[in-house]
């Protein structure tokens, strides 16, 4: 934890406080991933579980002094991936090199790569977060991804896309 700067600690305290429902410097461990993602980290769901995160509310609590070493550890992870990495992955499916891809390929990608989404979640992404398909089945992925609708949806699901 010595590698955290005073500014890092301040940011961590602020993010932690958002999920501290009753102001006691304690969060429910179901929110561990949300706090880390609020700090611009991108841990997998499996990593969050290893670090003490839970799937159900009320199973476990965590104090701020327990969270800071976890934050420090996650900050050191170089395998985070970022927005630009995700766009580069989508470009692999952009056969016309014009910022579009087949909606079916995006659906397949979300169903089969990284931490997979469920069919219903993919349908929601395509319906609510992406521009409509054109007559040939292509969607303009770059505009939708850059506007943030797509990434906000995935963040709300606590999904790591890399």
TrEMBL record:
Transmembrane segments: none annotated. It comes from the Eukaryota. The keyword Repeat applies. InterPro entries: CALM/Myosin/TropC-like, EF-hand-dom_pair, EF_Hand_1_Ca_BS, EF_hand_dom. GO terms for cellular component: muscle myosin complex. SUPFAM superfamilies: EF-hand (SSF47473). Keywords: Calcium, Motor protein, Muscle protein, Myosin, Repeat. One of its GO terms (molecular function) is calcium ion binding. Residues 7-42 form the EF-hand domain. The keyword Cell inner membrane does not apply. Myosin is a hexamer of 2 heavy chains and 4 light chains. PANTHER family: MYOSIN LIGHT CHAIN 1, 3 (PTHR23048), MYOSIN LIGHT CHAIN ALKALI (PTHR23048:SF33). This is Myosin light chain alkali. It comes from Vespula pensylvanica. The lineage of its organism: Eukaryota, Metazoa, Ecdysozoa, Arthropoda, Hexapoda.
